[in-house]
Amino acid sequence: METLAFIWDNLAPIGRMTVDHIEIVGVGVGFAILTGVPLGIAITTNERAAKLVLYIASIIVTVPSVALFGFMIPVLSLIGQGIGFLPTVIALFLYSQLPIVRNTYAAITNIDPALREAARGMGMKTGERLRKVEIPIALPIIMAGVRMAVVINVGIAAIAVYIGAGGLGKLISRGISQSDPRQLIAGAILISVLAIAADFALGWVQWLLTSKGLRSPSLAARIARRFGASAGPRSQPQQAQ
User: Fold this and answer.
1) Residue 211, SS3?
2) Is there a contact between 164 and 91 (Cβ–Cβ < 8 Å)?
3) pLDDT, tens only, 114-155
4) C-alpha distances in Å from residue 13, one per residue of 19, 130, 166, 191
5) Which of 141, 128, 112 minimizes the C-alpha distance to 37?
6) Is there a contact between 17 and 25 (Cβ–Cβ < 8 Å)?
7) In this structure, are residues 47 and 111 in contact, taking their beta carbons and an 8 Å threshold?
């Protein structure tokens, strides 16, 4: 109750922190999508390049976030951006590459070859086939990688408060430094809620972008269909003449 009261009494600053957190994650993952999806598509034509790119992306993910932030401070200090927004966005961009590139690569390479042959038989060129056939089919798996990247980076962005970035990590940092469990718990809860909300929002976006023929019915539609079928008219037994 004390934590809830703290959140209620500090809605305005918490709202600003939430907006900052969303902005940091949105910019970092947004740039990762713009580069990761084309890169994942490009490496589908070269197995050696695919192994190299995925290997490098896997190594980046294994680097602890604190170490990555610490490495970027002296490098970006050369341009006066050693702390704050820019290093945080770059770190989230790097951490997003593996799930986005790997899912894109896996989605495109696992498309049924018969579909590609059918598209070629219809006279589609490579770009047209990619745009009209392969990407629409691969979209759910690509979006799964994007959703994974967002959820992961919502948590990583909280650590960026130690290099001067904003966001909900301020609550956790202040809770630790001031020995205030209210702020610590509030920060942890709000970051978790934000990650869950972002995942649900992207799931809805994924459903909208997916072709109608590939969409799975929603839970509400499945329930309505089931109860509608069970409540439908039943055949009456014939009476004896």
Assistant:
1) coil
2) no
3) 887 888 888 788 778 888 888 888 899 999 999 999 999 999
4) 10, 46, 11, 15
5) 141
6) no
7) no
Tell me the DSSP string of 77-143: GGGT-SSSHHHHHHHHHHHHHHHHHHHHHHHHHTS-HHHHHHHHHTT--HHHHIIIIIHHHHHHHHH
Categorize the per-residue pLDDT at 233 as very low, low, confident or very high, splitting at 50, 70 and 90: very low
Residue with tokens 């600053």: 13
Task: Break the chain down into helix, strand, coil percent, rounded to 5.
Answer: 85, 0, 15
CA–CA separation, 46 and 69 (whole Å): 33
Query: CB within 8 A of 37, min separation 6: which ones?
Result: 100, 104, 142
Q: Of how many residues is the chain composed?
A: 241
